[in-house]
Specification:
By secondary structure, this protein is α+β, with helices and mostly antiparallel strands. The chain folds into 4 domains: 91 residues, Rossmann fold (3-Layer(aba) Sandwich); 55 residues, ATP-grasp fold, A domain (Dna Ligase, domain 1); 125 residues, ATP-grasp fold, B domain (D-amino Acid Aminotransferase, Chain A, domain 1, 2-Layer Sandwich); 96 residues, Glycinamide Ribonucleotide Synthetase, Chain A, domain 4 (Alpha-Beta Complex), CATH 3.90.600.10. Helix content is 32%, strand content 28%. The protein is built from 14 helices and 24 strands. Strands 12, 15, 18, 20, 23 and 24 form a 6-stranded antiparallel β-sheet that branches. It has a 5-stranded parallel β-sheet with strand order 3-2-1-4-5, sandwiched between helices. Helix 1 links the parallel strand 1 and strand 2. Helix 6 packs across helix 9 and helix 7 runs antiparallel to helix 8. The longest helix is centred in the middle third of the chain and has 21 residues. The mean pLDDT is 96. Bound molecules: adenosine monophosphate and glycine (GLY). Glycine binds next to loops. InterPro entries: ATP-grasp, ATP_grasp_subdomain_1, PreATP-grasp_dom_sf, PRibGlycinamid_synth_ATP-grasp, PRibGlycinamide_synth, PRibGlycinamide_synth_C-dom, PRibGlycinamide_synth_C_sf, PRibGlycinamide_synth_CS. This is Phosphoribosylamine--glycine ligase. Belongs to the GARS family.
Length: 428
């Protein structure tokens, strides 16, 4: 690749995509960066275009017209819809797995069956197509137990049932259509206890390069309470993932999964995100995602020292055997600012002020999610709205910078958790 020779299209509109665009925009290889649809933050560094990113023909048409060299697919929807397949059929490099490989996220039962066949540690489970069979399973599997819609449900299809009645109600709700087509089938699995970690590898289908570790905070409330969200904050590295644990995760979870996908004739290329439960019996797989985590991507991009573009290209082209990545030694933290009411209903169109002052510190980046710029004003138009992301020497320093920046943001209709990183900070 030569200087300023690469045209890239990033797909998505979240904090994850702003962070990817921010990192890509720093590459000396970049000639032109597009993002569809983007957001109020992305439009300051990329040309935002309105495209139906769930429509492979629409994306392929645009990519051909603009002679795009690489399409970076942020969210899972287009992956499961076969966008990488459609791009590759036109010889356009795509960062993200083909549809058959994206099934690791698209079907929870698919992933559980791989775990069973390749002896990958995960919760014991059953797969069900009818309520009657699911209820029979519950007769012999007491609560607490976890009921999951099989398909994509925007993070909402998982019910942690503390009682048998809740488990049975969840089964009925799912088969009654609470999650639409995603609930045509369901998985019931053993409840696991432990701390969770997000584990990312770049893979070309054979080789796998672990990225920096991270932890997310999925619950809306402080102390990890209240309903699940897309993620309220993250930090990296997650020191709880020791080198030995990393090794164990690679050999017992990641490598057998890549073997399974190759055996199925659909090798997995892209970033593979393993949600891990660190149990007393070692790391176990909670679920796979076929993309970067959001907000984990924000802290990874702030810590990544190397150019991201060659890494994305090598992955998309199917050979990362020579790839190495360098990371900043500093810790990073991102705190999500969301609209009051999220993850329930919230109002849109309120104005956010103070962003320039908040971003004045060289170690702080504010990655936008649900924002748009109108008449020079930044407006909140989504649930998760901003990701205030800082790095510093040690997690307490990163935390202090992020919260100092948050103090400067004037947005009455927003809220954020004040305790991001609490487990790691408590453990010292
Ligand atoms: P998932 O979408 O499968 O990652 O599930 C969302 C969240 O539900 C996870 O991050 C966990 O906090 C929780 N969860 C899912 N499966 C289990 C399980 N088997 N045991 C305990 N918690 C779980
Ligand atoms: N941070 C959780 C997710 O991206 O699914």
């Amino acid at each position: 690749m030569e200087e300023k020779s690469v045209k890239i299209l990033v797909l998505g509109s979240g904090g994850r995509e702003h962070a990817l665009c921010w990192k890509i925009a720093q590459s000396p290889l970049l000639e032109k960066l597009y993002c569809a649809p983007g957001n109020g933050g992305v439009e300051t560094i990329a040309e935002c275009v309105s495209l139906d990113i769930e429509s492979p023909p629409a994306v392929v048409k645009f990519a051909k017209e603009q002679a795009i060299d690489l399409v970076v697919i942020g969210p899972e929807g287009p992956l499961v819809a076969g966008l990488a397949d459609a791009l590759m059929a036109e010889n356009i490099a795509a960062f993200g797995p083909v549809a058959a490989a994206a099934q690791v996220e698209g079907s929870k039962g698919f992933t559980k069956d791989i775990c069973a066949a390749y002896d990958i540690p995960t919760a014991a489970y059953g797969r069900f197509k009818t309520a009657a069979e699911a209820h029979t399973y519950l007769d012999t599997h007491p609560a607490p137990i976890v009921v999951k819609a099989d398909g994509l449900a925007a993070g909402k299809g998982v019910i942690i049932a503390e009682t048998d009645a809740q488990a049975r109600a969840a089964v009925d709700d799912i088969f009654d259509g609470a999650f639409g087509a995603a609930g045509a089938e369901l998985v019931i699995e053993e409840f696991m206890t432990g701390e969770e970690a997000s584990f990312f590898v770049l893979t070309d289908g054979v080789n796998a390069l672990p990225l920096a570790t991270a932890q997310d905070h999925k619950r809306v409330g402080e102390g990890d309470t209240g309903p699940n969200t897309g993620g309220m904050g993250a930090y990296s590295p997650a020191r709880i993932v020791s080198p030995a644990l990393l090794e164990e995760t690679m050999t017992r979870i990641i490598q057998p999964t890549l073997t399974a996908m190759a055996d199925k004739g659909s090798p997995y290329r892209g970033v593979l995100y393993a949600g891990l439960m660190l149990t007393e019996d070692g790391p176990k797989l909670v679920e796979y995602n076929a993309r970067f985590g959001d907000p984990e991507c924000q802290v990874l991009m702030l810590r990544l020292k190397s150019d991201l573009v060659p890494a994305l290209m090598a992955t998309a082209q199917g050979d990362i055997s020579d790839l190495q990545l360098e990371w900043h030694d500093e810790d990073a933290m991102t705190v999500v600012m969301a609209a009051q009411g999220y993850p329930g209903s919230y109002s849109k169109g309120t104005q956010i002020k103070g962003l320039d002052a908040a971003e004045a510190d060289a170690d702080t980046q504010i990655f936008h999610a649900g924002t748009k710029i109108e008449d020079g004003k930044t407006l909140a138009v989504g649930g998760r709205v901003l990701n205030v992301t800082s790095k510093g020497k040690g997690l307490p320093a990163a935390r202090d910078k992020a919260y100092a920046a948050l103090d400067k943001i004037d947005w009455q209709e927003g809220f954020y958790r004040r305790d991001i990183g609490w487990r790691a900070l408590d453990e010292g």
